[in-house]
């Protein structure tokens, strides 16, 4: 193959990758800007006069606004808790030697693999008995089961990369273990802590099964409300796609901004 | 413990220090993870249908397990989950390697960086919203998938209304969402091939395939292993996207195991049987996790 041809093929391939990654997302956003006629046009239309009517409709709908607020409360709280509980544990796993350390690390990670449906049933029964159904608290706690492992996983790796000499120097000056953790490991481990917090936020923001099962009316989260539009005969496609965009867009923009770190976070463990 | 102290006299921390750092996380996970699991295990030995509270919740021994193990639908949903895995994974691996190689090839800086960054978009998209988009794209009347088929001369397909179409549709949405993950893992693997080795090999052969097979493949295998196991756990718990897109239908064409258990538990409200199903799924997940641990341990050593 000659140089220009291979360059052309390479460029073509990359363009296909970009189109592949963006198309469904692009289609959702553009659909949310079409009026009902354009939305239901057969065959589908690619050029149209954009309208914000669906966005006006969903933001006038208290249900959607509340759902976004609920999602924010739940995702933020569970992320903060996961980092507060996970980062110290990661420090212990990264820098101390004790029996069963490897097993403990794997136990943390394996929590990530459990299907939500396994825990959803008993949590539902427990929450019902304790009167916790349809509260933020029950979602915040249950989301820890998949966020805490992520924080432990990513932060352990991050803390390992911090030079142990810093810790030894601080110890010679008489710093206790807690000071060492909070004054050395937390500040230097910020990239790892931030990446794990981002993942934790995204996972909680996106969760549907627990939210579907454990909430009723007051604490419905954004994915639940988006899904709830799907019942009924005539589907409000414009509202559905506008809600979808409102849920996905902030997280996606956020993810794009930090994608460099995210990619680093994603490859962890896989490349060990 | 004592001889550990002897060998490393300057450990500089008390024996209980790691415990204090670990305890909050461990006890929290135990409380919200293990307690409910035990609760589920106990429930799985009871008749527990909350639509019939007058029956009480009597202990029935292994009856629920017998019900599940002789339930053809349960096995069918597990089989379908396996088939789904075998459909999407080879495609995700092949596409993932292809994309990783494209991104690894030098040149075209801006476009390459753009392609790499856009891979994050599918990963950040809410699974439930992926399902919503899927319903729009694969709509029989105004879906863009049928427009594409029309373009290449194949008539409109009732994607979500036909068993094969619905299975293909959920597979395609899963491929869209997870191929980037594979691509990024393989890209990380490729970037670990030492440059000297890659350049030396390039002098020997011009064949891209030989290069992949003999030079790059060893660096891709660890990522591939981790990906296979993580994705198999993911497919076992796959729920959101399928629930939104097809609810398991039409018929049982997309009735994956998580969707089925959710239906038994929260539509039929037979929590005893659903708990037995969940415990069996948990056993399967733990077996997978053990496999994961074993493979990962081997890599670390």
UniProtKB/TrEMBL annotation, chain A:
InterPro entries: BP-dep_ABC_trans_perm (IPR050901), MetI-like (IPR000515), MetI-like_sf (IPR035906). The lineage of its organism: Bacteria, Pseudomonadati, Pseudomonadota, Alphaproteobacteria, Hyphomicrobiales. Its main location: membrane. It comes from Oharaeibacter diazotrophicus. It is a multi-pass membrane protein. It holds the Pfam family BPD_transp_1. The chain crosses the membrane at residues 12-29, 72-93, 105-125, 137-156, 184-205, 240-258. Residues 68-258 form the ABC transmembrane type-1 domain. SUPFAM superfamilies: MetI-like. GO terms for biological process: transmembrane transport. It is found in: Cell membrane. Gene3D superfamilies: MetI-like. This is Carbohydrate ABC transporter membrane protein 2 (CUT1 family). PROSITE patterns: ABC_TM1. GO terms for cellular component: plasma membrane.
């Amino acid at each position: 193959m000659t140089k220009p041809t291979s360059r052309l093929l390479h460029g073509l391939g990359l363009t296909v990758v970009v189109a592949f990654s963006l198309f469904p997302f692009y289609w959702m956003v553009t659909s949310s800007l079409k009026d009902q006629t354009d939305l239901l046009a057969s065959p589908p239309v690619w050029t149209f006069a954009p309208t914000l009517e669906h966005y006006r409709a969903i933001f006038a709908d208290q249900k959607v606004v509340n759902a976004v607020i609920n999602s924010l409360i739940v995702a933020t709280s569970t992320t903060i808790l996961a980092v507060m509980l996970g980062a110290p544990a990661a420090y212990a796993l990264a820098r101390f030697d004790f029996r069963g350390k490897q097993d403990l690390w794997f136990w943390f990670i394996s929590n990530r693999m459990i299907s939500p449906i396994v825990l959803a049933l008993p949590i539902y029964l427990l929450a019902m008995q304790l009167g916790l159904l349809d509260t933020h608290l029950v979602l915040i706690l249950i989301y820890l089961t998949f966020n805490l492992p992520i924080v432990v996983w990513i932060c352990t790796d991050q803390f390992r990369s911090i030079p142990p000499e810093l810790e030894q120097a601080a110890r010679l000056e008489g710093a206790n273990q807690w000071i060492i953790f909070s004054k050395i490991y937390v500040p230097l481990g910020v990239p790892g802590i931030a990446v794990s917090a981002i993942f934790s936020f995204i996972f909680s923001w996106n969760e549907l099964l627990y939210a579907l099962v454990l909430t009723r009316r007051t604490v419905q989260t954004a994915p639940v409300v988006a899904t709830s539009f799907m019942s009924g005969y005539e589907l409000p496609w414009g509202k559905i796609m506008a809600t979808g965009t409102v849920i996905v867009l902030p997280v996606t923009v956020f993810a794009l901004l930090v994608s460099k770190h995210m990619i680093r976070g994603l490859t962890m463990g896989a490349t060990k | 413990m004592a001889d550990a102290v002897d060998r490393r006299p300057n450990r500089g921390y008390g024996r209980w220090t790691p415990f204090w750092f670990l305890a909050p996380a461990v006890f929290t996970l135990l409380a919200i993870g293990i307690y409910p699991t035990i609760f589920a295990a106990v429930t799985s030995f009871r008749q527990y249908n909350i639509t019939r509270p007058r029956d009480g919740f009597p202990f029935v021994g292994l009856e629920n397990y017998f019900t599940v193990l002789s339930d053809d639908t349960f096995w069918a949903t597990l089989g379908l989950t396996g088939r789904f895995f075998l459909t999407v994974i080879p495609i995700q691996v092949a596409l993932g390697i292809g994309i990783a190689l494209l991104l690894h090839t030098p040149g075209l800086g801006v476009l390459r960086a753009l392609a790499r960054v856009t891979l994050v978009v599918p990963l950040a998209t809410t699974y439930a919203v992926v399902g919503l988009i899927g319903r729009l794209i694969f709509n029989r009347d105004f879906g863009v998938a049928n427009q594409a088929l029309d373009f290449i001369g194949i008539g409109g397909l009732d994607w979500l209304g036909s068993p094969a179409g619905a299975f293909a549709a959920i597979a395609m949405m899963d491929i869209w969402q997870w191929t980037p993950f594979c691509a990024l893992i393989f890209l990380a693997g490729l970037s670990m091939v030492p440059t000297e080795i890659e350049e030396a090999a390039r002098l020997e052969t011009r064949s891209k395939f030989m290069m992949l097979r003999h030079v790059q493949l060893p660096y891709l295998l660890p990522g591939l292993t981790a990906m296979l196991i993580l994705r198999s756990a993911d497919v076992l718990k796959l729920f959101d996207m399928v629930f939104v897109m097809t609810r398991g239908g039409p018929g049982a064409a997309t009735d994956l195991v998580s969707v089925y258990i959710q239906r038994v538990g929260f539509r039929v409200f037979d929590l005893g049987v659903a708990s037995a199903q969940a415990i069996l799924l948990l056993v399967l997940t733990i077996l997978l996790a053990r496999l994961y641990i074993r493979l990962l341990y081997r890599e670390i050593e």
